[in-house]
Write a structure and sequence with these properties.
heterodimer; A: 10 helices; 76% helix; elongated; B: 222 residues; mainly alpha; 8 helices; globular
Chain lengths: 237, 222
Amino acid sequence: MLLRSFSVQATWNYRTLMGAGFAYVMLPVLRQLYGRDSERLRDAVARHSSVFNCHPYLVGIAAGAVARMEADGADPRLIDRFKAAVRGSLGSLGDQLIWAGWRPVCALLALLFLLVGLPWWVVCGAFLVAYNAGHLAARVYAFRLGWTYSKGVAEKLRQPWVAEVQRRVAMTGAFLVGVLLPLAAFGRTLALPHPLIAGAVAVAGLLLGLRFGNAMRTPVILVLVGFVLIGFLMRPQ
Amino acid sequence: MIWLQIALLAGVIGLDSTAFPQIMISRPIVAGALTGLLFGRPTEGLMLGALLEVFHLATLPIGAARYPEAGTANVSGVAAYLFVTPALDVPALFLAGVFALAWERIAGGSVVVLRRANERLIVDAQAVADPARLIERRHMLALVLDFGRGAVVTVVGALAGAALLLAFTPFWALPETVVRSAIAVATTTLLAAALSVFGGWQERKRIFLLGLLSGTLLALIA
């Protein structure tokens, strides 16, 4: 099940979202439990291929808990209600912890290594090792948690350590953003010709980024496109 | 031969974005370096990848949201750049970066098309004799389709990017200093914007300012 969970989003679609992938993850357990009774197996597969979605790394929490409930002979309606209840919280927890936490922190760490002049393989290697240490730990822990606490797993996720992990990851990210700003403006990688230009660049970027946040992404792209067009107007004779 | 290698790498990177195994070789910073490695110039690939990485720090792939696909587009941009330049060329690198930022919209569109195609792979478990086996087969088919999507969209992007760079770079004459400054403003703006992902200025100003101080000292030492 753990290995299958790595491809849980292969059949992601707009009708059942991760539903088919969830059934794919559950199949080894369902075969083990209902393998001799094709009718019950078909019913179980049908139930688990319905609409479902959550963060892909935390699917193990739901899959582990559902596997335990199936093994304990829980009422299928209870299992369906459990899946409906946890999918939202597993989605938002994973988004906060991984997509908006661990992943950008590891990317910032890689950018830091690049800006201090480390070789490419250290930059990429550090990113992949750091990120996947957290990634793999999350997947394994998710299955253990789901299997151990079964339908009580939601209570376990509400405990304060989850919020504390989120806070620490966010603090690390904020610190790294601060470290990277002067390195990007004054460092050797971009090698701006004068400290005054570098200072102006840093202050302009800082103010714009802090004031408008990620809403700056599209305007920045448009400005870069503008530079491309200006470059053609200044074409060599 | 190099195009076949690019297609294979892009297929794997396209898969890694969503379908399998999400170990983040599809992040621009890694995808760029790996593409550069195919050409024997990983550092330039890394630089372009790092630029795109900054654009994606605060992009979150949440639920059914549509978002640009950075990994495959970055492979296209890096391959196009390395194909047309014999050595480091900052203006061409900049143009390839802007091309990759545009191409990632098309790559993201191909993900939407694939997800619609995946709707046809849904198994009606009550209507077939052995739904378990059918689900497994269609799961594998979905992986193959995603691999193919990544390979095709990337190779087409790399060819288009290389053609554009070959055609237009000779007529482009922005001074390198201006190009570097433009990249620096974009980078610092988007880095500062990433603070919003970690709670924003109000919540994190102390630790952010501590980082700013540490970074300034580091820049002075380096």
